[in-house]
Amino acid sequence: MLSLLSSRFLAFLVLFLSFGTLFAQETKAIRIGILGVDNYQAVAYTQLFNDPKATGDLAGLKVVAAFPSTSSNDIPESVDSLPKWKEALGKYGVKMVASVDGLLANCDVVMIMSLDGRRHLAEATPVLKAGKRLYIGRPLAADFSDAVAIIRLSEKTKTPFWTSSQHRFSPGFIGMKNHPEVGNVLGCEMYGGCPTVPHHSELYWHALHSIETIYSIMGPGCVAVSCTSTPIAESITGTWADGRVATYRGIKKGAVKYSGTVFGEKGVSVSGIYGHGIPVKGIVPTNDKYMGYEGIAIEIAKFFKGGPVPVSANETLEILAFMEAAHESKSKNGVNIQIADMMKKEQK
Question: What is 29-164's CATH topology?
Fold first, then answer.
């Protein structure tokens, strides 16, 4: 009898310990490593993921290590921000490591947060080869060829990766796709800031935020792009295969805001504004919860937990080709440029 009880006790103990081990594995936080810290987004995401009160999708992740790398001397913001954001990350318990290898040894997944897109191909290469899921903050790269090289390396190594502007997942933008007062989207007119820098393709640096907003509302399928440029604004028009049309006004001079108008089968509505919710009867809420980076952080979290990429490589390629086509159109006095022709560049 005693032997039977002992056997049952031992079996129960083994079962208890097994459940305890499984529970510990399930609750173990996914370790995030950050490569490059001269971008404020490094701090913004760390605040969200390392919050001990985080719930839902944001729970279960932690930024544990960062490789600060170096600043880009021809980008003043990079030079000024590197020491500032490095110090800020330290306050959240993020360990600074001395190399990319040191970073990879201390994390499960990686975020590239360096401000300079020229660095991203070299930074992404060891991460993708190591098989670590990867998110790259915008700009994906400084030019089309580097961006395509990153996408192709992700495919070759079979390592999931994605990139996106934080504007895409702002509620007032992405919520326009199924807005009850608009219905099926037939087109939109979006606007936002359009500063440029000499070391990045002109629309990659900042205009991409509003162009990505167009894609969050319209979806992919653009076939042709034209661009009219003046010292005051860039006016870019995209035509979709089904006849829908979207335009982007890149503001070079005057007040800078990020919003627009959406045209649909049921109605026309102003778009939301960055960080806030969708309009109700044409009124954009500004006294609601400001989302900031939280919308995209939720998508990053779901991806790092094993979910699918929120923005496909094909859509990312089309957005890049859209910007390349706009640049080509500008150089040819506003003629229509086919997206397919830009796509051929990446096949060479």
Answer: Rossmann fold (3.40.50)
